Structure formats: structure tokens, C-alpha cells
Amino acid sequence: MAWPLVSIVIPCYNEQDTIAALLEAISQQTYPLDRLEVIVADGMSTDNTRHNIGKFVAEHPELDVRVVENPDRAIPKALNRAIEQARGEIILRLDAHSQPYADYVERCVAALEAGKGDNVGGMWEIVAGSQTWIARSIAVAASHPLGVGDAHYRVGGRAQCVDTVPFGAYRRSLFERIGKFNEALLTNEDYELNARIRLNGGKIWFDPAIRMKYFARKSLSDLARQYWRYGYWKAKMLRIYPKTLRWRQLLPPLFVFSVLISLILSPLSVVARYGLFSTLGSYLLILAAVGAREALVRREAFLLVGLPLSIATMHFSWGLAFLWSLASANER
After folding, report:
1. 303-327 and 133-141 are packed helices; what angle lies between their axes, rounded to 10 degrees?
2. How far is CA 78 from the centre of its chain?
């Protein structure tokens, strides 16, 4: 069998805690290492990221690892600079917070070679970023349907065509045909690319057998910042591709909007006050029920509090950012 050359591209900034583990996971792939190259696009890291990459390179001469500079620290620019330096027929994106299973690359290439999709990917096995109770709660929330809706790569499902997969594996010819990542979007650049693939007649293929570990955020403040970015740039992306809107993306801003309107009107209207109390009351009851169920099933009492806090942080950060983005339509 002729193994195509695979270029793994990784955007990176201040990832000293995870970059070495990711590179180690790549070095353990079942795919022939002499048919792999790794290109890390580093946003001028100020911690020990570059030192850790250099140490790994010195200890693993069998794997071709290179670093390109990304002074703008923007993810789509990082990906495009890495793709421009890549030599492979297949481009496979990973993230510094991820650890692919040993057969990850081999399965992605097999799916591409079989014509399953123009972009193929699989499941996130979401792992806590640390062992604190809130970090472990965040990891559960990040794969719970109440937190993320029906996103197959988070909640699972059968192999099928979907609207998006995490990261992705592509043929280089795809970028030559439809262009690289949109550098005007600082987040949601992967979803925008998937929208372009579908609009050009392509397919996004999800296979749950393609798996990686993904490390969730460690704190509620980090989670809030992450979901603020997601919501803000999702609204920007939807102005370009409004037909790509999914119900799971619309619910948080609608919920937050209803709460805000009720708050504004409640001093003037009994109906608004009733609506506010009933909406928030129902929401809190649902969160409490979900937290209680997961705490019982997983036998982890901290989920009684941690899971509702995490899911609420995701909903309100995403929803507020989405609304703010719509209100600031003329901003970048």
C-alpha cells in the first residue's frame, strides 16, 4: 500500500502543559511515521511551549516536527501558515488541547481514501483539564446534550454525514479548490470551512471510531471566555452563511434575550415579572434535575452544583456574546 504523506497542522499559543503530550500521542500513531510531518504554528508563546517542543524533537528524531511563526496569534492564520508550509497530500488539523488515539490518523486517511467525505473526523472524549471539582464538572457539561445540543462529535452517534466535525482531515486539493480558512473569523473558522465544503457539493463525515481525548477548560472563567468567543464569532459567521444555523445554536441567545427583556420590563409589568420568574425558575429546575441525575449515575456529588454552574456559564456566555455580536454588526 502506498501511504500518502500526511501533514498534521497545529495552532498553538502558550500550551506548555499539553503540547508535549500531544506530540507524544502523534509519535505513537499506527500510521507510518516516515509518512507524517507535524507543523506547529506558534503564536510567539511566552511560556515553555517552544522549549518543550524542542525537547521533544531532540528525543524523537524519527518524527518530522517543525515550527512556523504566527505573530498574529489568530487560529485561522496559524492554520493557513502551517498549510502553506505543508508538503502532504492530506492535511490533518489537531489542537494543542487534544490527544488522538493511536489509530486516529490511519482511520482518517482510510475514510478519505474510501471517499466517505471531503472532511472526516470523529469523537471527542472530553477529559477534565485538572482534577478540581469544577474542572471535572466542566468536562461533563461539555459533552452533555443540555450543554451542547445534538453535536455528534460531543454526544456520539452512528457514522454519518453531519454539519461539522472537530478539527478535520482533508485532501490538499480541497483547499486549492475552495480556499483555506477564513482569516476574518477569529473563531468558528472550522465551521465556516465546513459550510463552504457543503455549499460546494462536498460532505462532512463523522465516524465515532475516530477518537481523541480533548481537555476541557479548567475554570468557569476560562469556560466563559471560550463560549463568549464561540457565540460572538458564530453570529459573525452566520451573517455570511445564515442557512447553516442549527437549533442548538439558536436556543441560548433566544433564552438570554427573553431573560433580558423580562428584566427590563419587570419593573413596569406584572406579566413580565411573572414571565421572568417562571422562565428562570423552570431553567433552574431543569439544571438541578440534570445535576442530580448525573451526580447519582456517576456517583460524584459535586455535580449537583458543578454541572448546573457549568451549563449555565456556557448558555449565558454563548447567548450574550451572540446577541452582542448581532448588535455590533459593523465591528470586526
Report:
1. 60
2. 16
Grid coordinates 465551521 are at which residue? 191
| Residue that has been written with the C-alpha cell 494543542 in this structure | 96
Helix (H) or strand (E) holding 169: strand 168-171
Q: Quickly tell me which residue has 455570511 as its cell.
A: 240
Angle at 206 between CA 228 and CA 90, to 5 degrees: 95
Considering the entire predicted model, what is its pTM?
A: 0.90
| Residue indicated by cell numbers 472524549 | 125
User: What are 160-171's pLDDT values in tens digits?
Assistant: 999 889 889 999
In sequence order, what DSSP letters do the residues of 265-318 get, joined into one string? HTTT-HHHHHHHHHHHHHHHHHHHHHHHHHHHHHT-TTHHHHHHHHHHHHHHHH
Domains of the chain in sequence order: 6-218 (3.90.550.10), 241-327 (no CATH)
Burial class (CB in 10 A: 0-12, 13-18, 19+), 109: buried
